[in-house]
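Late entry, evening session. Most of the bench is empty. Finally got around to the prediction I had been postponing all week. Sequence below, unchanged from the version circulated by S.P.
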Amino acid sequence: MNEEIVKEIASIERKEDLQVEKNMTTWLVFLIGQKKYAMRSSDVLEIVRDVAVYKLPFMPTYIEGVINRRGDPFTVVNPLAVIESSDKKPPEEPLFLVLKRDDDQLSIHISDILFFTEMEESDLNLIPNSDEDGFFLGTLGYGHDEIPVLNPNSFEVLIRKDLGSA
């Protein structure tokens, strides 16, 4: 009898150890236009609302301009113009994700914040043979939805390539 209890306790402890070892990631799910997208919350420095976008001349169409965040300019990217490969108008809502970057000041224009969710890193369905230039890392399965996960590095790579500083 005591041996059975000891075995049961040991199996419970092993299950708890396995649960602790799971690599959990917090994801931010948001809208761009009417479509859902996700990004690791660790890639987002701040969510900024109701700031003016100052236009810049002679920029690619996907660069809307810059926003002023505490005295620092952040380049604003219209992801619709990049993702859908057309001159899609940016969202009307003045809502921006300021990306956490070591070497650049970049933000993307979004339509709305939907929710934050914590999921295992392994829940990210990676795109096979993708590189850092790709706009998507993969998809997250959430309920009945497959939500595309944006690659924040791809916007910087595109800007550097288009502006000749790659």
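Two things to note before I forget:
The chain has a mean pLDDT of 84.
DSSP finds three helices and eleven strands in the chain.
Will write this up properly tomorrow.
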